[in-house]
Design goal:
Blueprint: H1 2-18, E1 32-40, E2 43-51, E3 58-62, E4 68-73, E5 79-82, E6 94-98, E7 103-111, E8 115-123, E9 127-128, E10 131-132, E11 136-144
Antiparallel strand pairs: 1-2, 2-7, 3-6, 3-9, 4-5, 4-8, 8-11, 9-10
Length: about 150
Amino acid sequence: MLWKKVGMLWLMFAVIMAIPGAAKGEGKMVPDFSVEAVQKGCNVEIRLTAANRTEEEMHLEFPTSKLYDFTIYDETGKPVYTFGKGKFYLQAFQHLTLKKGERKTWVENWKGGAGTYTVKAVLLSSKINGKSGGHVQTELQFTIHKK
């Protein structure tokens, strides 16, 4: 009985080792994606940054001219603003290449009242270096103080 268990474990180990690294979640190349919220008077600058922290160039492919989106939620979790809502985007592939150590930052402005908010952002790449599954998400809680 013990030999059967050892044999099964050995078989599972052999199968796992035969799976390519990317399928095991190793070596998956994705950009670091972060969001900052900086109060500028009555407005808030939403800064979205994609950074390549790998040793290779990173090629991002987007299915439209909409490269990112974000939604801002109030303290109760109710969405109060969605950047892409009501906008139209070019239906043509877009490409962005980030060299080793390079960053790309997009800045958008939002006017909100005093309070605590959460911004949830997504980088809408459909492929990274030719491989599917490029969406990267991030979120941040921030507070707007009365001026």
